Amino acid sequence: CVTSQTEISTTVSQYACQRRTTTENNNKIFTEAFEVLAESYEFNEIEGPCLAFRRAGSVLKSLTFEVRSLGDTQDLPCLGEHTKELIEEILRYGRSFEVEKILSDERYQTLKLFTSVFGVGPKTAEKWYRRGLRSFSDVLTEPSIQLNRMQQTGFLHYEDISRAVSKAEARALGNIIDEAVHAITLDAVISLTGGFRRGKEFGHDVDFIVTTPELGRERSLLPDVTDRLEQQGILLYCDYQASTFDMSKLPCHRFEAMDHFAKCFLILRLEASKVEGGLNSTEEDSRGWRAVRVDLVSPPMDRYAFALLGWTGSRQFERDLRRFARLERRMLLDNHILYDKTKKEFLAATTEKDIFAHLGLEYIEPWQRNA
Ligand code: 8DG
Ligand code: MN
Ligand code: MN
């Protein structure tokens, strides 16, 4: 029998950029299980299945209904054998034994713990694990380990940085950055991006685009901003990467995870008094401040729309935008440009809507990009 749910699911696209995904996830029980598997594959550098589980999770996140039987998933894209087995297991037992086995695995637990430190990626975590280290105190008391400045800061502010950033905290940081950029140049432009632009209640950091309409001026903006934050005594850590952006070297045909704009990865000291309703802390915190991760990126104004689209995420949404552009339109999309390989020309855009229109995609609002 054809249910209304099946009718809805026949219209689900394999591309996240053709789905509307809000922060409301009706299938958490499945998507959280998929994420554990994806992570476990990631730790073992098995890329295919890792991506497959992320894609499957993303499809389930977009559903406006809760999956209650395997039949509910029959017309959905991106669900393979393994994912269906997992769904079936969870439907039957309310949990997955495969997932539980991973969660109790020592290697998984240790890599998960180590990569939760700011500045520690899967490679470093793996190295430490192979040396027999299993806990933070193992790492911190091992004489042969030299932590870099990022990792030292990561351990120093571990508790604060691990605690989620609230919307109120993101707003307070927005005020601080807004004040700083406008003190430097009156025509500064600042936009909230990343997860908070997608309407998330909590984030692991706060992401902003800051720039100025004066082309070229953006190159010195971030150093000026961080100098000012330093003078204010709220700059706890700053990893500044100068712009390597060069329009004449584009389009770039090989895949690059990072863009070439000037950016900085910061840790700021946020005073409780600046946050409406106070800091997001569980127990009474006598310090009256917390450390927070903030990312700033500064593209030239004529690249603004591409940077905004790229930094708004989610990562899965971005991946599928690029994949859609390449496979369905013979176009190259990244944080800098949209290039039509057939016409051999760059497509101009001043807004995100322009980019969706060039791609022949219906516009998806930021809060619908939580793929
Ligand atoms: P969260 O912080 O709330 O946990 O989620 P998020 O805001 O979606 O994640 P994010 O890690 O802050 O990344 C936001 C977007 O920025 C994401 O779509 C990827 C994008 N991004 C780039 N380039 C770079 C880069 O060089 N570093 C980082 N960290 N993110 C980048 O496009
Ligand atoms: Mn973020
Ligand atoms: Mn970020």
TrEMBL record:
<dbReference type="GO" id="GO:0006304">
    <property type="term" value="P:DNA modification"/>
</dbReference>
<keyword id="KW-0460">Magnesium</keyword>
<dbReference type="GO" id="GO:0003677">
    <property type="term" value="F:DNA binding"/>
</dbReference>
<comment type="function">
    <text>Template-independent DNA polymerase which catalyzes the random addition of deoxynucleoside 5'-triphosphate to the 3'-end of a DNA initiator. One of the in vivo functions of this enzyme is the addition of nucleotides at the junction (N region) of rearranged Ig heavy chain and T-cell receptor gene segments during the maturation of B- and T-cells.</text>
</comment>
<keyword id="KW-0808">Transferase</keyword>
<keyword id="KW-0539">Nucleus</keyword>
<feature type="binding site">
    <location>
        <position position="295"/>
    </location>
    <ligand>
        <name>Mg(2+)</name>
    </ligand>
</feature>
<keyword id="KW-0479">Metal-binding</keyword>
<protein>
    <recommendedName>
        <fullName>DNA nucleotidylexotransferase</fullName>
        <ecNumber>2.7.7.31</ecNumber>
    </recommendedName>
</protein>
<dbReference type="GO" id="GO:0003887">
    <property type="term" value="F:DNA-directed DNA polymerase activity"/>
</dbReference>
<comment type="similarity">
    <text>Belongs to the DNA polymerase type-X family.</text>
</comment>
<dbReference type="GO" id="GO:0046872">
    <property type="term" value="F:metal ion binding"/>
</dbReference>
<feature type="binding site">
    <location>
        <position position="205"/>
    </location>
    <ligand>
        <name>Mg(2+)</name>
    </ligand>
</feature>
<keyword id="KW-0780">Terminal addition</keyword>
<keyword id="KW-0548">Nucleotidyltransferase</keyword>
<dbReference type="GO" id="GO:0005634">
    <property type="term" value="C:nucleus"/>
</dbReference>
<dbReference type="GO" id="GO:0003912">
    <property type="term" value="F:DNA nucleotidylexotransferase activity"/>
</dbReference>
<feature type="binding site">
    <location>
        <position position="207"/>
    </location>
    <ligand>
        <name>Mg(2+)</name>
    </ligand>
</feature>
<dbReference type="GO" id="GO:0006303">
    <property type="term" value="P:double-strand break repair via nonhomologous end joining"/>
</dbReference>
